[in-house]
Amino acid sequence: MTALELQQKSVLYRKNILKYIYGAKAGHTGGSLSCIDILNVLYNYTLNVSPENFTSPDRDRYIQSKGHTVEALFVVLADKGFFPESDLETLCQYKSHYIGHPTRKVNGVEQNTGALGHGLPLSVGTALAAKMDERDYRVFTLLGDGELPEGSNWEAALTASHYKLDNLCAIIDHNKLQITASTKEVCDTNPIDDKFESFGWAVRHVDGHDVAALKEAFDAMPFEPNKPSLIIAHTIKGKGVSYMENVLKWHHGVPSEAQYHEAIEELDAVMATL
Amino acid sequence: MGAIIEKEIETGKANLEVFSSTLQELAATDRDIIAVTSDSRGSGKLVPFGQKFPKQIVEIGIAEQNLVGVAAGLASAGKKVFAVSPACFLTARALEQIKNDVAYSDNPVKLIGISAGVSYGALGTTHHSLHDYAVLRAINNITIVAPADNFETEQAIAQAAALEQPFYIRFGKKQMPLLQPDSESTFEFGKGRVVREGDDLTFVATGETVYPALQAAAKLEKEQGISATVISMHTIKPLDTGLLEKVAAAGKPIITVEEHSVYGGLGEACASFLFQSGHRNAFKIMGIPDEYTVTGSQNDIFNHYGLSESGLAEAALTLLNP
Fold first, then answer.
1. Domain A3-273 classification at class level
2. Nearest chain B residue (CA) to A153
3. Residue of A60, A103, A132, A158 to mutate when probing chain B, most B C-beta within 10 A
4. What is the pTM of this model?
5. Residues in chain B with pLDDT < 50?
6. Rounded CA gap, B186 and B193, in Å?
7. Domains of chain B: which residue ranges?
8. φ, ψ for residue A173 (rounded to 5)?
């Protein structure tokens, strides 16, 4: 997929995220909008994952540690044909499989996540299995910057470098806000790069909304031989909807009818320029 | 119940040793068998396993949350994973990983809780696991097993390896007598094993407390002419309610015995079933009470709380003669 096609997909995905969150009157809006370009590039360019090969032991794995931004994952999986998009009309409804965090009851989801600090250990185990079985698949996991204080991340970071898991790529959606305040105010984890490098990882910074830069970064993994790769993706919480960008309340804010239409108009205007 | 069957109690090995040898047998013919350890290969008796199958053991270091998360990832990719760690740390520190990464995500990890209960004796409460049945019983999709002897241990490990579902299997480290000749025994998850038959009361015990229950039954027979049934309820969840129903129907007293808090374990599981199904047998839960656990060896602690030949016999007499 070309950079232009990916940019168009990103706008479509943003509109769908808003549509289904608006419909469900629930969801993690800001974070879904910050990570959607990353998921877009992964599923439309990088991963060898499709509904057809989803049971193949050789497929690449994507495990979403920041499970609360499940709306981003669901709209991408629907677009890739894992399930009909209309299923998302049941988002968060009674007896729906499409709940507020990823579950394997939804086709295309690798692991049930939602509690933070779980994606990296799961990904390390999956990447280790690939090494044991001499399979070529790669494992990608998306973390929020707000979940970095979870100790299990650092336990897993040690294991990843200890076992030289160069088939593992962790991406941090570094939108610099969490539910209470900025990540700097809540628990400053900077410098993230130095910390991971000292844990034996190879680290790159990338603009998490630049699809060309994301493609290039994923293509470059492993960044160093025998080391796990970390991408610190600099993003904007609420990206694409001006009134949401960098505004704390949109962590799990749901737009009103007027706000919803305003957001869609803004995204349509962007689409018209592409 | 039928006639009393007196059996010679042969001395066996520690269940932990049998776990290790069984896992080695499985690994020899199946390269997907993987042991994951948290600096616990020595205490898990897995040093020989590591020497024979260096590519089938994953050392995590002392990081139990990561141990379980990594084990779940390995299992999701088709490995038959035994995550081995002291029961106290495995089921407390890594409880959220057990709940989400193993049980909820249905990654078929076999969690092996070693040196369970008060096996660590005088090392104290940090090293005791008296909560594990209780917390895991409240989590959907995990089978909880406490083998009583070497036979049950071997069967539990071999059968669990063949099943693609989550398990928690715990045992201690002391030598365990064989409760029955193997030829007379069968083992099936979720089916209690009747190791002694009697008419006057029933001990429903699990793990390393089955043997003292059997000793108490023999003492009651010899000294009081009271005959007791002894059941090894090796699977705490799912509970063998069919067997409990059968036992309760005789109307005789029931004593549950476990190396666990009296809260939330085998006893309360049995009580809950029996009460809700209308049975009103005289009933007593023998376990560790809700207090700062007395200090001492495993035997000292068992004796102190009546999880012993004489303590259980006394509990039976009290229940029979209120």
1. alpha beta
2. B66
3. A132
4. 0.95
5. 1-8
6. 8
7. 13-177, 178-320
8. -80, 90
Contact (CB<8Å) A156/B97: no
- If we measure between CA atoms, which residue out of B165, B107, B73 comes closest to residue A61? B73
User: What are phi and psi for residue B129, nearest 5 degrees?
Assistant: -120, 95
Q: Searching chain B, which residue's CA lies closest to the CA of residue A123?
A: B73
pLDDT of residue B244: 98
Whether domain B13-177 has CATH 1.10.10.60: no
**Residue of B60, B106, B111 to mutate for A, most A C-beta atoms under 10 A:** B60
Start-to-end CA span in chain B (Å): 23
Q: How far apart are CA B51 and CA B153, in angstroms?
A: 22
Number of Cβ within 10 Å of residue A142's Cβ equals 27
CA dihedral of B68, B71, B75, B77, whole degrees rounded to 10: 120
Q: Which two tokens stand for residue B163?
A: 């099943």
pLDDT value at residue B181: 72
pLDDT of residue A151: 97
Query: Shortest Cα distance from B278 to chain A (angstroms)?
Result: 33
**What would the pLDDT profile of B78-126 be if each residue is shown by its tens digit?**
999 999 999 999 999 999 999 999 999 999 999 999 999 999 999 999 9
Q: Do domains B13-177 and B178-320 have the same CATH topology?
A: yes
b/e map of B117-149 (b: 16 or more CB within 10 Å)? bbbbbeeeeebbbbbbbbbbbebeebbbbbbbb
CA nearest to A213, candidates A74, A13, A38, A27: A38
A242-258 pLDDT, tens per residue?
Answer: 999 999 999 999 999 99
CA distance B129 to chain A (A): 22
Q: Which residue from B minimizes the CA distance to A55?
A: B77
Q: What are phi and psi of B192, to 5 degrees?
A: -65, 150
Write the DSSP string, A62-95.
EEESSGGGHHHHHHHHHHTTSS-GGGGGGTT-TT
Q: Given this model, what pLDDT does residue B1 score?
A: 32
ipTM score of the complex?
A: 0.95
Do the chains contact at B101 and A129, CB–CB below 8 Å?
no
Is residue B232 within 8 Å of residue B192, measured between CB atoms?
Answer: yes
Cβ contact, residue pair B74, A129, below 8 Å: yes
Work out whether the CA dihedral A145, A151, A156, A162 comes out positive or negative: positive
Low-confidence ranges of chain A (pLDDT < 70): none
Of A104, A124, A158, the CB nearest to B73: A124
The pLDDT of residue B183: 67
Q: Provide the terminal-to-terminal Cα distance of chain A, rounded to the nearest Å.
A: 15
CATH topology of domain B178-320: Rossmann fold (3.40.50)
CB-CB contact of A31 with A66 (8 Å)? yes
Which chain B residues are within 8 Å of A121, Cβ to Cβ? 65-66, 68-70, 72-73, 97, 101
Peptide bond into A121 cis (omega under 30): no
